[in-house]
Structures are given as C-alpha cells and as structure tokens.
UniProtKB/TrEMBL annotation:
It is found in: Cytoplasm. One of its GO terms (biological process) is pyrimidine nucleotide metabolic process. HAMAP family: Cytidyl_kinase_type1. Residues 6-215 form the Cytidylate kinase domain. The keyword Glycoprotein does not apply. It comes from Cetobacterium somerae ATCC BAA-474. This is Cytidylate kinase. The keyword Ribosomal protein does not apply. Keywords: ATP-binding, Cytoplasm, Kinase, Nucleotide-binding, Transferase. It comes from the Bacteria. Belongs to the cytidylate kinase family. Type 1 subfamily. One of its GO terms (cellular component) is cytosol.
Amino acid sequence: MKNYIIALDGPAGSGKSTIAKVIAKNFGLTYLDTGAMYRMVALYILENNIDFNNVADVENILNNIKVDIIDDKFILNGKDVSLEIRTPEVTKIVSPVSAIKAVRVKLVDLQREISKGKKVILDGRDIGTVVFPNADLKIFLVASPEERAKRRVKDYASKGITEDFETVLKDILERDHTDSTRKESPLKKAEDAIEVDTSFLNIEESVQTISNLIKEKIGG
C-alpha cells in the first residue's frame, strides 16, 4: 500500500506520542502530534490573556494563530515553543480549549491537509472517529489513571518541573471526564479500533505490540 493512515487514539498519558514517534521512525512514517497542535493554540490563549471560556473571543483570534511542525519542533507564529507547550499551565487548559468547535474545525482541516498523499501516523483523541474515520489502522491505547499519572510526573521531572502525584492524578481524571463528555469530537474508541492496554507494558513492549499490528494489517 503506497500511502496509508494510522490513527492512534487514547486518553492523556497513555503513551500515544512517545510510541507514535518511535513507530514513525521505525516505519519511515510522517508523525503528526495533533495534541501538540491544540497545545499551541492553548499557549497562544495563555500568553495573550484570552478568556478561553468566552468562545467568541477565542474564535476572533484563531486567524492570528499559525501552527507548524518542522523537524519534530512545534512552531507557533514562527517561534519554537516545543518546551512551553508541555508546561502544567498549558496542560490544565488544553482540554477545554480543544473542546471549542471553531478550534477543532481549524486544526482538523490542517491535519487532513498535512496528511494528504503520505504515510502518516497521527495520535489524538478523535483521529479514528472524526479526523480519519476511514484510517487504514485504528489503535486505541489505554492505561490505568494511576499509571498515566506516574508517567506524567516522570515526564515533568525530565523537563525540570516538579509536580505532585495526587495533583497530576486529579488533573488526569478531570481531563478524562472532560474529553469523554464534551460535545465536539469526544474521546471514544472507534468501533473498528484495536485496543491496546499499556498499563503493564514498557515503551519497547508497546512499540513491538503496535508494530506487529501494523505488519499484520498493512504490511511492513
């Protein structure tokens, strides 16, 4: 198959972006971190003191936002914001920001445009249900909230950020609820998605499991 789409969905902290990066490298795919795209919008809103609860205000500034991904760097209006978009402050508001219909429309259109004519792996929450419902392979990653919180704390620590486990766990549970109950493109498993539980798998084991699925369904 010349070009194909792999959709990798799941809740926060399930390992999507880490696994997708390795898979992309191993299979020579274009990797599109859709969550980072929403984080860039959230960062812009934070930096410009926009009230994300005011949908009209958010809609009015969307044309001022240009997001791009170049060589694994996340570019917001010409500036590399790869570190800034991973802060707890951005994490806290990215879910309500991504629930805004105008934001989703803008970024879904961009995701589809970037993916045209390529072998692509995309990770997010609605890739297999909304962005690419006809994806060639759909995978839904899950892991226990506690395991995901441990991973998030460890990830923050690697960036020099100290966060309390209980606080992170609370944030993850709140985000799960927000993401799965929102009106616009809620987090849910596509009917034809294959579920992979990474709670007791390390990165290498998770990558191997998904690599086997790719070889079986698409070829490698």
